[in-house]
Amino acid sequence: MAFLVYRGNPQCGGQGVYTRHLTRELVALGHSVEVFAGPPWPQLDEGVGFTPVPGLDLYRDPDPFRIPHPRELRTRADLVEFATMLLAGFGEPLAFSLRIRRILRRRRAEFDIVHDDQCLGTGILGLVRDGWPLLETLHHPITVDRSIALDHAETLWKRVTTRRWFGFLRMQVRVARRLPAVLTVSHNSKTDIAAQMHVPLERLTVVPVGVDHTVFRPYEDVAPRPGRIMVTSSSDVPMKGLVPLLEAIAKLRTERELDLVVIGRPRPGGRVDRTLERLGLRDVVTTISGVSDEELARLYGEAQVAVVPSLYEGFSLPAIEAMSCGVPVVATTGGALPEVVGESGVTGLLVRPNDPDALVGALRQLLDDPDLRARLGAAGRERVIERFTWQVTARGTAACYDAILRGTPLPESMTFD
Q1: C-alpha–C-alpha distance, residues 413 and 226, integer Å
Q2: What's the CATH number of domain 2-210+390-406, 1.10.10.10, 3.30.470.20, 2.30.40.10, 3.40.50.2000?
Q3: 61-71 burial: b if 16+ Cβ within 10 Å, else e
């Protein structure tokens, strides 16, 4: 199987996490998997093959939006990627799809099936035309990201640049509508993809993502710290809901000692950074990035409460990571979060999105009630073990491969619900 991911590093978000753990478990099931990825490169486990697909890497640290040397512009894909950046757009998906189509054309005899992780570039549709059996993973409709970003644009110019950045979405919608088999990670995402991207329901199946429950677990030598709250967010965008959470933290700190650990790196001068300054929270908020899975699990173990304040999620890896660690979770009802977290008051607490007062109430309830924290933490871990492991994800994904190769319809879902 050829597994494609245009930006594969786990530090860049959920696609990199999905790539690493799903491919490892597919190999454990006996499949042969080779990952084709653009920079920044993925982290892969032993037994998983890797072929780099070099690109211009125009957004790399420490020189994002760099101007490449003319000698770097060797192919049509390079020119497309650079020109799109000059027009304030995001050209990586299209450029990667053009590169990978050319690479796979020379390796047709080596693979049975192609699995693309949400590139949805024009070249992916070209792979189908070339005769490749193909499964597409679409975690959630990016139409939601664009809508929320536009709603939070503070100036006319910001609205213009936001529309330009999301220009790739027209291509992705066009490609998604024409692909024969699309896997998504929640029933909520399935409904939204059908409604907003007009992908026929009969081409969609649900296979939830998972967590490594052997790493994300309670550690006997790690104890919660009084007043410690934790949130994980790999990107500094309005959809992740960090600003409403910071508003809630500012209200709570007037009545108790607490500290907030943010796993992620807010942009200097961005909305989150400005909010920290406006609310005077720099002394109670710590940002951490670049940690290993075990280090992340131990950080969860030091928290009395984990928060997922997103305005929308197609699934939520942070939610199941925290639950797997036995940490009680406060999450919003945005997108698929109720589907992931479960019943409010039983396996977590659910509140309205974008509502700092609702977050204050839920956080206060958990911080003041150790019995409730223990009960929700234990029930959350049990829910994850039953439903959301990478082994379950791999078995469901492999069933989709079998259906595609046999020419039979995709299962409606591979979930417990």
Answers
A1: 41
A2: 3.40.50.2000
A3: eeeeeeeeeee
Ramachandran assignment for 403, one of left (phi > 0), alpha (psi -120 to 50 degrees), beta (any other): alpha
**Structure confidence at residue 12 as a pLDDT band (50, 70, 90):** low
CATH architecture of 228-387: 3-Layer(aba) Sandwich (3.40)
Distance CA 18, CA 136 (A): 13
Q: Which residue has the tokens 């009969």?
A: 202
pLDDT one-digit tens code per residue, 65-108: 999 999 999 999 999 999 999 999 999 999 999 999 999 999 99
Tokens of 312: 């929308």
d(CA 29, CA 23): 10
Cβ-in-10-Å burial (0-12, 13-18, 19+) of 40 comes to middle
> Could you report the per-residue pLDDT of 55-64, keeping only the tens digit for each?
999 988 888 8
Helix (H) or strand (E) holding 228: strand 228-232
Greatest extent of the chain over all pairs of C-alpha atoms, in Å: 66
Q: Determine the 3-state secondary structure of 204 from DSSP.
A: strand
Quick one: tokens of 378?
Answer: 């234990």
What pTM did the predictor assign? Answer: 0.90
What are the structural domain ranges in the chain?
A: 2-210+390-406, 228-387
What are the Cα distances from residue 23, in Å, to 11, 215, 401? 17, 17, 13
